[in-house]
Amino acid sequence: MAISQDLLEILACPACKAKVELKPDGSALKCVECRRVYPIRDDIPVMLVDEATIEVEDEKQAERN
User: What is the pTM of this model?
Assistant: First the structure.
C-alpha cells in the first residue's frame, strides 16, 4: 500500500516544517527545503529527525550540468 495523497498533503518536515514529497521509488519522503529524507518502513513514514538522512546528490548533479 502506497502513501495516500491525502496523507502527503498534511505531512511536513519535522525539522523545518516544509512540504515533503514521495521519492520516485516510493522508499522515502524528501523535504523540499532542507532535503532531509525520511524512510518509509512497512508503509509507515518514519518522520523522526534522528532517522533522516540529508540527500546531496541532486546538488552535485546540478553542479555538473
Answer: 0.82
